[in-house]
Amino acid sequence: MEIDVKKKNKNEMEIELIGEDHTLANLLKEELLSDSRVQIASYNKEHPELSNPVLHVKTKKEDPKEVIDEITEDLIKSYENLNQEFKEINK
Fold it and tell me: Which part of the chain is the DNA-directed RNA polymerase RBP11-like dimerisation domain (predicted)?
């Protein structure tokens, strides 16, 4: 996956999630919306088969890149824990 920053300023950012679909974009959007520092989190995918989702994040005052970094790190840890739980089931 690649990321293309379409727009970035003090508290707002738009990034294109190249090669991704609604699955990742929606997961990121929902996690961002659950963070009290985030004012707006949404994404747009102009065409279901031909376009990449563009994630739009607006924070209250924090750097949106830092918030996205923290959210993605938390998601990675959650999925690593889930993966470990599944491995324990098979033992």
Answer: 12-84
DSSP 8-state symbol, 91? -
Mean pLDDT by 10 residues, the chain (91 residues): 95 97 96 98 89 97 97 94 87 68
Alpha helices in 1-91 (DSSP H): 22-33, 64-89
CB atoms within 10 A of CB 64: 26
Indicate the number of domains in the chain.
Answer: 1
The CATH code of the domain that includes 55 is: 3.30.1360.10
- Kindly tell me the burial class for residue 91, based on how many C-beta atoms sit within 10 Å of its own C-beta (0-12, 13-18, 19 or more): exposed
Q: How far is CA 90 from the centre of its chain?
A: 31
